[in-house]
Amino acid sequence: MNSQIEKARAFRALHVPGTPLALANAWDAGSAAVIAASGAAAVATTSAGVAWSLGAGDGGRLTREAAVGAVQRICAVVGVPVTADIEDGYGEDADAVAVTVREVIAAGAVGVNIEDGDLRGPGPLRHSAEQAARIAAARKAADETGVPLFVNARIDTYLRGTGEASTRLGETVGRARAYLDAGADGIFVPGLIDLDAIAVLVAETAAPVNVMVWPGAPDVAALAGAGVARISLGSGVAQAAYGLARLAAGELAEAGTYGAVAGGVDYGEMNGLVNPAG
């Protein structure tokens, strides 16, 4: 795939309910290169991992410039489609979200996640109408570039535990429909792993549904059976990598041994992944 439009179309086609696209999220160019080399059909970023790698906390603390720079470096080293987690769009209003979308497309991305968590106000969630306006702005900005960007609308009802548990699924479905009407292509509900509730969401929205997984969550086969179209590890791979760094440092300091770093990617292979021409 050479053109960004071809990559965008290919990425869109990967979202098949019952045959989910599985994404191990990257946080920098090196992790993206390793993930792509593993045979992944696409690379997704994790905003948390990107922020941590750049010395910032997650949750709206990263600047647009830093986030876009990370996307650009990732797109430069992989040939597969890249979708970017842009948190709330890195801006106070819908116009700012549109600017971010144009910049991540210029950096090479063919998809974005936009969350409805209220990172800049009293929260925990933006009003659905306000979030729909932000998604509509993202859709319009993307369409004006000619790149068929996949807009994944993230709904944080389960992640943040908003409202009563008995009404949470209904609120999620309502938000999903509003965001799809505004121009979103898919729905992402991190924190939701109940298979029955996922099946209802799939049926009620008739759109690709993305869930986040972690150890103990249903496996890919079970989620496929519920109609999921996309599965992502979120910040899990980055957290595991940092966990290994802590383990290796502790072993070195306490035992004077180095077993924790066994099994790492070969030095020459890693060099070749990020700099194939060199």
From TrEMBL:
SUPFAM superfamilies: Phosphoenolpyruvate/pyruvate domain (SSF51621). The keyword Lyase applies. Keywords: Lyase, Pyruvate. Pfam families: PEP_mutase. One of its GO terms (molecular function) is lyase activity. This is Isocitrate lyase/phosphoenolpyruvate mutase family protein. The keyword Iron does not apply. InterPro entries: ICL/PEPM (IPR039556), Pyrv/PenolPyrv_kinase-like_dom (IPR015813), Pyrv_kinase-like_dom_sf (IPR040442). It comes from Bailinhaonella thermotolerans.
